[in-house]
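Support reply, case 0932

Customer input (verbatim):
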Amino acid sequence: MFEQAEGTAQKIAGQVQKAFGSATGDIGNQAAGRARQAAGSAQEAYGEVLDQVRKSAVANPVLTVVVVAGLALALGALLSKR
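Our regenerated output:
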């Protein structure tokens, strides 16, 4: 939930910064505002995915353990071949 709120705050700050850049004719602020908006959108999406994973883990704890164990084994196998 925190990630989504932080992403929303970043998007709003980016919109404000972009608007300020447009009002003052500062292309740098406009670009930085657009970049901040994009980062905020990405953070919001990450927060949504994280919330879904948490809900799924609570609803299906056994499946979660099996998936994590499988990922750990796969990662271990990949790293041991180095």
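We compared this against your earlier run and they match. Two observations from our side: The CA atoms of residues 29 and 61 lie 46 Å apart. The chain has one domain: 2-80. Please reopen the case if you see a mismatch on your end.
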